[in-house]
Amino acid sequence: MAVLSGVGAGRRRAGVSVATGTESERPRARDSRAALTPYPDDVDARAIAEFHARYDRPRLSELVVVIAAYNEQDGLGAVLAEMPKRCHGMAVDVLVVVDGATDETAEVARQQGAHTCVADTNRGQGAALRLGYHLAAECGARYVVTTDADGQYDNTEMDALVRPLVDDEADFVTGSRRLGHEESDSRMRWVGVRVFAWLASLLTLRKITDTSFGFRAMRAELACSVTLTEPQYQASELLLGVLARGARLRELPLSMRLRTSGASKKGRSLRYGANYARVMLGTWLREYLLRDHRK
What we know:
Blueprint: E1 2-4, H1 42-55, E2 63-69, H2 76-81, E3 86-87, E4 90-99, H3 105-111, E5 116-119, H4 125-138, E6 143-146, H5 158-166, E7 172-182, H6 187-204, E8 216-219, H7 220-225, H8 234-244, E9 249-256, H9 270-294
Parallel strand pairs: 1-4, 2-4, 2-6, 4-5, 7-9
Antiparallel strand pairs: 3-4, 6-8, 7-8
């Protein structure tokens, strides 16, 4: 397995300007983040420039695993260690996008033989994944797989996840904890998964069982074609975006485990659920109603 990583020259704490110290030391609430501007924004541009300068514009495998990581020093090493080296005859390259971490996430990646593209500002998982999609495609990826840095997904299931793409039976493949197996420690999240699956099915007029499963595979050009503006609640924006573009969707019964370390960056409150619903409805309005009207 070839794994990509690198360390950015500058880091900023979430909501804090390290250079000037002019902003408040208290980070903003994660659900108050502003929408992302079109790719590449200034943070993307700095991260990309540093990455290419460090690695001299590397050529990646056809299959690239993108991992967004923010303060995951305790769990990332095990995730990288279990990553398959090959999948359907393709070498597996891993691109770790460090989202303005304030711990040793990037150093852990290096110790595992990884290189990471480092964003110098903490913007959210959605921003880090968007950067990863585009950077992977620019470096030659044909297929992009996403997984989390906290060990919740069984990456040895990658062969099953990627197979529908290789066999040209799907353009976007996602696991489903409802069809497979889930270890859950949150009743609210258990309910939320089912409520949002029902809502997404209603909006898209197709059966969807899990809108937020983070272990997914897609064609690289498809990932780059979707409008992604959400820094945090990105899963439903990506899913509805690819479906609005006519992508062939496949859901598979896969496993979801409890985190191996640390605490979830995602909330368990009604506010988190309200924001997730806001993004899903807003994406549907933009991608289905307004997009059709513009045609």
